[in-house]
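protein under study:
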Amino acid sequence: MRRLLVALGGLTASLALAAPGLAAGTAAWPMIQGGPAHLGVAEDAPEPPYREGWRTKAGRSGHRGAAGPVVVGDLAITLGRDEVLAVNVSDGDVAWSVARAPDVPVTPAVSEDGATLVYPEGTGDAVAVIGLDLKTRSVRWRFLPDAEVRAAPAVDGRFAYVATRSGTVYALETATGDERWSFEGDGAVRSALTVAGGLVLAVAEDTDEPPKTTVYALNSDDGKEAWRAAPPGVGVLASGAAVDGGRAYLGWGDGGVRALDMEDGDVLWTRQVAIRQGFWPSSIPVIADGDVIIASPGGSVIRIDGETGTRLWRFRFPSAFLKAVPLVVGDVVVVGRHDGVAVALDVASGRLIWDLDLDGGAIGSLAPADDLLIAGLPEAIGGMVALEHDPAGDLTSIESPTVLHPTDAVVNFLVAFAALTAGLAVATRLAGSRRSPSTDAPAGGLR
C-alpha cells in the first residue's frame, strides 16, 4: 500500500483572484453526472431554449482546457490543466484559483458534507490525489497512487474512489485521505468510476494483443472482486457505466451498447450502434425513464429500451465526433457536440428541438446550478460557459436525416423509376433516328 502524505496548510499555492467565495452547504452537483451511479438527470434545471449567460476562461493564459464542473454552494468548480478554478454561479466571475501540478483535467468530486474537493494532479513522479479543504482552500490531505489518474473519481458515503492508468482502484476516506483498500486490475482505467448497489465498477482497457476491455465489480466495503465481465473480441475504447434498476449500461469498443446484470455481470442484451467503432472513455450513458441514452463517437445520440435493448430512436448529426456526456433535463436531453454546438433533443421522439453554436470548441459534461446549465470547455480555449433559459428564443422540431418514411420512399422510388424509364425510352428513339443510312444498299445495286 502507498503511504499517505498529509500536506500542511498552504503547501500548495492558493491564489485568491477575487472575493473569497467560500463554499457553503452540501454540493448540489458533486461529481460527473450528479451522483456515483451516473444517472445524469437534472430534474430542476432550466429547459430550452437557451442563450449564453456568461463565459469564463481557465488557466493563467486563458487558453487551457477545463473539465466538467461540480457545483458547491454558490460556486461552480472545475479543473484546468494547472489549476483548480472556482467561479460564482451568478455571473461567472472568478472567486478563487488554486494551483495544481499540470495534468489532463478530469471532473473532480465533492465529499457528501461539501467540505472536501477530491481531484488528481501531476504526471510521472508528481502524481497525487488531493483532498482540498473548500473553506480554507488549503490541502487537507495528499495521497500518492501508483500511476497517473485519468478517470473521474466518485464519492459515495465517507469514501472517494479513484483509479489509475495501471489499473489500480483505491478507496480513500474523504476526510483524511486514509486508504481503506486497493485493488489491482489489468489495463488502464480511463472512464469515470461508478458506485451503486454496494459495488464499485471500474472499466479497464488492456491494449496488449488481443486488446480487451474488462469491467471489474468490486465490493465497496473491502475491495474484493465480486465479478468481472470481459466479452471476447470487444477490444478497447469503452465508455463509463451508468447503473439503474440492477443493470449497468455502457458502450464497448466494438460499437455495441451492453446491459450487464449487477448481480453477476452477465450480459443481458447487446445493441449494436456503430460498426467497429468504440466510445470515448470520457463519455457515459444517461438514464431516462428506465431507458438508456448514449452519444456515439460516430455522431449519433441513441435511445435504447433499458429492458430489451431495442433501439427506440436515433438522431444523427453531421459532426463526426461525439465525446459528450448527455444530460436529461425534464423532457429533453441536452448534449454538447465536439464542434462547439449545444443541442437539445426531445426524449420521447428523438427530434431536435434546439441548438446553439457556442463558438468555443468541444463542449464537455454539464452541471445544473440554480437557473443555469454550466458546461466545461475541454479544449484549448478552456474554461466554462453557462446556459440560461431564453424566454424570447424559439424551439423547433426536426427529425433525424436518417429517419426513413416507407411510403415516401416507395413513392420517390416509383417517381425516379418512371423518370429513368422515360429517359431511356427517349434516348433510344433519338439514337434510332440518328442511325447512319450508309448501311443500306442504294437502289439498283452497287456500282
The helical segments are 406-433.
